[in-house]
Amino acid sequence: MELRTLRYFVAVAEELHFGRAAARLHMSQPPLSRAIKQLEADTGALLFARSPTGVTLTAVGTVLLDEARALLEHADRVRARVREAAGAAAITVGILGDGTDPGVARLAAAYRRTHPGIDIRVRDTDLTDPTCGLRAGLVDVALTRAPFD
């Protein structure tokens, strides 16, 4: 299980509607539905009972929701403690496409000149996540293209 997928699951479980969860996550509904179906396949159990008006959690889904929330909170604490222990400030920038783009390199270099104590990391993402990982907590800043849901 990936943390990103668990974040998707928590959003659907809290919204009890795929469309609203997709809007909350700033993504389209089809990739969200695919991710949840894959999570159900990975767990070997249905997590949601689906109906035309929305979804409800199954008993297995309720257990996973509690565990996913705890795991995501722990992952956030780990990330913060490791950054603190490293003593170096860092910004992770998510971009759609190729991180070797010269424009991205120029932008990162300009930022480094004015903020020399901050490490800039560029993370490439694909078009299935137009937020570049921002909503999932994988990046601090997202450079993306509009429009998207």
Descriptive account of the structure:
- The structure is a single chain.
- This protein is an alpha/beta fold and 149 residues long.
- The chain has two domains: 3-81, Arc Repressor Mutant, subunit A; 88-143, 3-Layer(aba) Sandwich (D-Maltodextrin-Binding Protein, domain 2), CATH 3.40.190.
- The chain has five helices and five strands.
- The model has no long low-confidence stretch (mean pLDDT 85).
What brief labels describe this structure?
149 residues, alpha/beta, Arc Repressor Mutant, subunit A, D-Maltodextrin-Binding Protein, domain 2, 2 domains, 3-stranded parallel sheet, two-stranded antiparallel ribbon, 5 helices
Helix proportion of residues, in percent? Answer: 40-55%
Give the CA-CA distance, first to last residue: 25 Å
Our count of domains comes out at 2
Biggest sheet layout: 3 strands, parallel
Mean pLDDT, as a whole number?
Answer: 85
CATH architecture field of the largest domain: Orthogonal Bundle
Q: Which value, in Å, is the CA radius of gyration?
A: 18 Å
User: Structural class of the secondary elements?
Assistant: alpha/beta
Physical arrangement of strands within the biggest beta sheet: 4-3-5
* CATH class annotation of the largest domain: Mainly Alpha
Which word captures the global form?
globular
Unreliable residue runs: none
Q: What portion of the residues fall into strands of 2 or more residues?
A: 15-25%
Looking at the structure, the CATH topology of the largest domain is: Arc Repressor Mutant, subunit A
Order of helices and strands: HHHEEHEHEE
Number of helices, where a helix is a run of at least 4 consecutive DSSP H or I residues? 5
Let me know the number of strands.
Answer: 5
CATH superfamily of the largest domain: Winged helix-like DNA-binding domain superfamily/Winged helix DNA-binding domain
